[in-house]
TrEMBL record:
Source organism superkingdom: Bacteria
Assigned protein family: Belongs to the ABC transporter superfamily.
Keywords: ATP-binding, Nodulation, Nucleotide-binding, Transport
Span of domain ABC transporter: 20-250
Taxonomic source organism: Frigidibacter albus
Name this polypeptide is given: ATP-binding cassette domain-containing protein
Keyword Membrane annotated: no
Single GO term (MF): ATP hydrolysis activity
PANTHER family: ABC TRANSPORTER ATP-BINDING PROTEIN, ABC TRANSPORTER ATP-BINDING PROTEIN NATA
Coiled-coil regions, chain positions: none
Record's keyword annotation contains Lyase: no
Alphabetized Pfam families for the sequence: ABC_tran
Amino acid sequence: MTGSPGAPLTSGAPDLAPALVVADVSHSFGEVQALKGVSFTVARGAFTALLGVNGAGKTTLFSLITRLYDSTSGTIAVAGFDARRAPGEALARLGVVFQTRALDTDLTLRQNLRYHAALHGIARRPAEARIAEVLALVDLADRIDQRTAALSGGQQRRAEIARALLHRPELLLLDEATAGLDVRARAEVLALVRRLIRHENVSALFATHVMDEIEPADNVVLLHRGEVLARGRADSIAAAGGDLTSAFLSLTGQAA
Ligand SMILES: Nc1ncnc2c1ncn2[C@@H]1O[C@H](COP(=O)(O)OP(=O)(O)OP(=O)(O)O)[C@@H](O)[C@H]1O
């Protein structure tokens, strides 16, 4: 295990709590144990990569954080709010970009975002202002009245990030947000997420299996077959194997 142990679960003061604390979380689907005692922390203002190949348990973990599944073992806290005991508070602080598309392609960007703002209980007038704001953040202000179907794959991903930002979340969860995009669109999505962290007071947990999306100073949680094999700065994990890919292969027992 690389890196420091997770921060204490409760700080008493949500303002000072990490963006996300996952402590000893396990989850099974019948005989399949998808997560085994998973613990890690996402600090405020941090880009944390959840690195894992297919079947690592990334989507299961996201489903527990977003309360799609109920976690029966371990604790999850978003910005200091326990996801089970205070789900409303925890979910209000989460913005989610799922693997599956969340926008209605028959509607315009504006219509999609109005709908999601209403779901979050944002009144019409502030919603219009916030929609303009988030579209500017993701560089899609000029596409507001375009049908979502007419946007490129990369623009759709950025639109989904805009949707996830509507209610000013403290933590963005992104599940393979760059999957299916070409090299340039991938780079744009990554740069956008990093920019949001620097300027918009948000943290991110970015699930990926693509090593070259990770920068040396990023925090990494290496999840493999439901277990955290390493956590800490990417460069310190990489140091164990020469580079991140070699360290990954060695830690997962796949080194030649
Ligand atoms: N609904 C389910 N029923 C049964 N088994 C499941 C279910 N969802 C996930 N699993 C199993 O749990 C394990 C973790 O799957 P999960 O989808 O969380 O991994 P992942 O890291 O997100 O992979 P991928 O990148 O392929 O989505 C796998 O062995 C998977 O087969």
